[in-house]
Amino acid sequence: MKSLKLPLKDSDIRSLKAGESLLLSGKIYTARDAVHKILVGLIKNKRRLLISLRGITIYYCGPTPAPPGRVIGSCGPTTSARMDAFTPILVKAGVKAVIGKGRRSKYVKEAIKKYRAVYFLAPAGCGALLSRRVKKKRLVAYEDLGPEAIYELEVENFPVIVGIDSKGKDIFEKSS
Fold it and tell me: Would you say the C-alpha torsion 77, 161, 133, 99 has a positive or negative sign?
């Protein structure tokens, strides 16, 4: 299994193939529906963001509180389709990768291809196990949103599968 260091380089993204299994290490940023709506609103109104989107990886996750002695509680992926209305704008603004679960819309796939990004799938139902791959957690923005705030997670060997590669190949679609 290939290991990649985050943030991803353009050459890393170009080399990835749909269906490929990877282990990611580095920084990812949690963001769900509420934060996506805020970020897109700020972008559309040409307002300053509290976080730079350039080159980052966003994880569709709302982590639970950390039990004693742990960095984070359960941190499994949420359904990606809920972010489909926002993803093309965020990818255009510089997000290089997103992590979630499930199928994506045609316009998300087109944006991933156009802006040379990638969609990763995290194993669903494994939030407790995935939490063991998180080495550090730091609140970045929107504390008032609780688990839906933006957190920076330092991950090590975080398992993902390439769901849609930068050429637009999607593992949920049959090959021609």
Answer: negative
Question: ∠ CA 58-52-143 to the nearest 5 degrees?
Answer: 70
pLDDT tens per residue, range 86-119: 999 999 999 999 999 999 999 999 999 999 999 9
In whole angstroms, what is the distance from residue 36 CA to residue 34 CA? Answer: 5
The question of whether 36 is a catalytic residue gets the answer yes
Burial class (CB in 10 A: 0-12, 13-18, 19+), 11: exposed
Query: E strands, 37-124, where?
Result: 57-59, 97-100, 118-121
In this prediction the pTM is 0.96
Active-site option among 13, 32, 36, 53: 36
Q: Which domains does the chain carry? A: 2-164 (3.20.130.10)
pLDDT digits (tens, 9 = 90+) for 137-164: 999 999 999 999 999 999 999 999 999 9
**Where does residue 139 fall: left (phi above 0), alpha (psi -120 to 50 degrees), or beta otherwise?**
beta
Q: What are phi and psi of 27, to 5 degrees?
A: -100, 130
